[in-house]
Design a protein that fits this description.
By secondary structure, this protein is an all-alpha fold. Helix content is 81%, strand content 0%.
Length: 73
């Protein structure tokens, strides 16, 4: 972010920035790509939050064995 802010500062406040319009357009492209990645990450997070963790057969068996073991004590 510091690098980004530095570039924006140079474009806005310094005179004679070569190709300022091109730099601004490229920054916009970067911002669009970052926004797309952020949306994708949010989608992945939502998918992960919606996954119900069903125990595997081994885990189910292990839990049953633990209950049996407790009952014998």
């Amino acid at each position: 972010m510091r690098f980004w802010a530095s570039l924006e500062h140079q474009i806005k406040y310094k005179k004679n920035v070569d190709h300022a319009e091109r730099v601004i357009a490229r920054l916009k492209e970067c911002a669009d790509e970052i926004a797309h990645v952020d949306e994708t990450m949010q989608d992945i997070r939502m998918e992960m939050d919606n996954i119900k963790e069903d125990p595997t057969d081994v885990e189910t068996l292990y839990e049953k064995l633990k209950k049996i073991d407790i009952n014998f004590m």
